[in-house]
Give the backbone structure.
Amino acid sequence: MTAPEYLVEIMTKRHSMALDVAKRRSKAIIPYVRHATGYVEQSLAGPPELAFLPAYYAILDLMKVYILLGPRHADLTHHRHHGMSYKVHSKSGSRPESVGDPVFTRPS
């Protein structure tokens, strides 16, 4: 499903998406599909006691694909972190400089 033409065809026929919109969204979707595929391969090839971790990340990437196919696709860029996060420049001096885990950043 990483072939752009095939993905665009699915998006226009099954999801009734306009051709220009499907082409634009396919550019955002394909990297997530590639990453998910790699995580699944890693999960299947690794030791059983650790297989859940790459499978978990594969599921996260596939959920991002699902979101990008739906009406709330624009929301994906507004929710880039999971876990604990806070403002780095807060008045409290007891907080470290780094924040959150950028799980929702677009893979390259």
